[in-house]
């Protein structure tokens, strides 16, 4: 490849990531905020009432110098990503390459169960999508006192409210396992610990998050848009405190 910088959306298949790593190509995770710019700049391309993660993707490509974009449009991401791929292809002069990640080789989930802050857990998991290799175990496994189920939020500040003994479930666990389309793994949660079931506002996963939260004996459904406001944070704090979780 003659690429130097590529962007990825979702989790392209391991064979794609492995080849990019082998060619020493810099990978930019377009799902994460990478530029200081008003997200309203995406309004000409996407509706304002749309997933903040995909609006962030568009904001990033408007400001980054990329040679190509790889976007997962399979069951490991979402239908909205497919539509965004169409929009990006019309917006950009660079290749927009659609992929379908249906990898099922399990890499394990030691980070999800480790005793480090929830922010660190999700930072390491999201950073791991840029590599085809296993990540090292960051810390010993801990007994969970709380659970976070769902997707990495655009605003990581809500993660600061959880104790270090929080285990991670949902699509984020699938990310660490490098099997984003593993629906059975995504459904897994621990009914013995108070769990926040989270998804971005306007994401289809809000339906599953709410459904599982209602099934869980100590579950809280929560969604947030571009930033997590005081109301969302207050709900998390009150839920954990009332559930007896030591913060």
Commentary on this structure:
- By secondary structure, this protein is an alpha/beta fold.
- It has helices spanning 14-22, 52-63, 79-91, 118-127, 171-177, 183-187, 205-215, 230-242, and strands at residues 5-9, 26-29, 68-72, 96-99, 146-150, 166-169, 195-200, 219-224.
- It has eight helices and eight strands.
- A four-stranded parallel beta sheet has the order 2-1-3-4, covered by helices on one side. It has a four-stranded parallel beta sheet with strand order 6-5-7-8.
- The longest helix has 13 residues, at 79-91.
- The relative contact order is 0.14.
Runs in which pLDDT lies below 50 for 5 or more consecutive residues are none
Name the quaternary structure.
single chain
Number of alpha- plus pi-helical segments: 8
Number of strands: 8
From the N-terminal CA to the C-terminal CA, the straight-line distance is 49 Å
| Sheet with the most strands: spatial strand order | 2-1-3-4
Keywords:
247 residues, 16% strand, 8 helices, alpha/beta, 4-stranded parallel beta sheet
Secondary-structure topology with pairs:
Layout: E1 5-9, H1 14-22, E2 26-29, H2 52-63, E3 68-72, H3 79-91, E4 96-99, H4 118-127, E5 146-150, E6 166-169, H5 171-177, H6 183-187, E7 195-200, H7 205-215, E8 219-224, H8 230-242
Quick summary of this structure?
This protein has helices at 14-22, 52-63, 79-91, 118-127, 171-177, 183-187, 205-215, 230-242; strands at 5-9, 26-29, 68-72, 96-99, 146-150, 166-169, 195-200, 219-224. With 247 residues, it is of the alpha/beta class.
């Amino acid at each position: 490849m003659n690429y130097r910088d590529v962007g990825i959306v979702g989790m392209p298949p391991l064979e794609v990531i492995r080849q990019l790593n082998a060619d020493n190509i810099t990978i930019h995770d377009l799902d994460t905020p990478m530029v200081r710019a008003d997200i309203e700049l995406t309004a000409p391309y996407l509706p304002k009432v749309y997933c903040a993660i995909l609006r962030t993707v568009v904001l990033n490509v408007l400001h980054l110098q990329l040679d190509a974009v790889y976007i997962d449009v399979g069951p490991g991401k979402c239908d909205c990503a497919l539509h965004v791929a169409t929009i990006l292809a019309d917006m950009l002069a660079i290749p927009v390459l659609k992929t379908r990640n249906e990898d099922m080789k399990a890499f394990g989930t030691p980070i999800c169960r480790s005793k480090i802050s929830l922010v660190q857990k999700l930072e390491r998991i999201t950073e791991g999508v840029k590599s085809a290799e296993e990540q090292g175990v960051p810390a010993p496994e801990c007994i969970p006192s709380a659970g976070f189920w769902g997707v990495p939020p655009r605003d990581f500040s809500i993660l600061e409210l959880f104790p270090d003994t929080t285990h991670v479930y949902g699509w984020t666990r699938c990310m660490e396992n490098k099997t984003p389309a593993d629906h059975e793994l995504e459904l897994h949660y621990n009914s013995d610990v108070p769990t926040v079931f989270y998804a971005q506002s306007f994401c289809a996963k809000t339906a599953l998050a709410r459904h599982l939260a209602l099934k869980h004996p100590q579950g809280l459904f929560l969604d947030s848009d571009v930033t997590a406001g005081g109301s969302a944070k207050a709900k998390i704090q009150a839920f954990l405190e009332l559930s007896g979780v030591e913060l």
